[in-house]
Amino acid sequence: DAKTTQPPSMDCAEGRAANLPCNHSTISGNEYVYWYRQIHSQGPQYIIHGLKNNETNEMASLIITEDRKSSTLILPHATLRDTAVYYCIVSSHSSGSARQLTFGSGTQLTVLP
Amino acid sequence: GAGVSQSPSNKVTEKGKDVELRCDPISGHTALYWYRQSLGQGLEFLIYFQGNSAPDKSGLPSDRFSAERTGGSVSTLTIQRTQQEDSAVYLCASSPQVGVSYEQYFGPGTRLTVT
Fold it and tell me: Nearest chain B Cα to A98, which residue?
């Protein structure tokens, strides 16, 4: 799976949009971009994923550049409960094979009151 | 709908005892993963089930660890003769693993402390 690069930390004011970048310049054509987060002392939580089109769900939006070498996770109205470590992962879909998650260092997002 | 559940939430055991950890995945999810996470560390993959079979057991740290899944649903992770280094949070995740849906949904974990 392709390697990803994320800033180690970011701050965001409560109520503002949090924009978390991720570089994945070696992504291959069949690899998806996934985002997870881990709030302190909790298990990881799936947020969103996409291949090439922008995606939106109830938690966040995912913007993928046209060349697919980078993406941005957007939390439109950050709350204090969004404080967590956010992980960007690229992974292919291989039917029947294990797709175990390997988290890098991620971005520690701190939402400030 | 109901998410992934795990039991017990906390387990304290004496060194040398056996423990069983249980995972109830989301209904209909064919794939099930076990991980463990030590304090301040990343996820360590243990084992993967597709249905009831375990094609990838590569992460099990020793032969004291075993896991099974029955009926394509509930899974148990068994640790025999526990050691202090087994202390960690054990996380279970399930995934639909069909079409474009390969995301994993995690349970709250079982915190195992070996004294």
Answer: B48
Find which of A101, A103, A108 to mutate to test the B interface (most B CBs within 10 Å of its CB): A101
Nearest to B34 by CA among B24, B48, B20, B53: B48
Residue B84 DSSP class: G
| The pLDDT value given to residue B97 | 78
pLDDT at B46: 93
* Residue A1 clears pLDDT 80, i.e. is over it: no
Does B96 contact chain A (CB < 8 Å)? no
Q: Tokens representing A79?
A: 């709350």
Residue A69 near residue A57, CB atoms below 8 Å: no
What pLDDT, in 10s, does the model give residues A52-78?
989 999 999 999 999 999 999 999 999
Nearest CA in chain A to B102: A93
Q: Tell me which of B57 and A15 has the higher pLDDT.
A: A15
What beta strand segments (E) does chain A contain?
Answer: 9-13, 18-23, 31-38, 45-50, 55-56, 61-64, 70-75, 84-92, 107-112
Residues of A in contact with B42 (CB under 8 A): 102-103
Counting every residue written for chain A, the total comes to 113
The one-letter code for the residue type at B37 is Q
- Match 């939006």 to its residue by tokens: A61
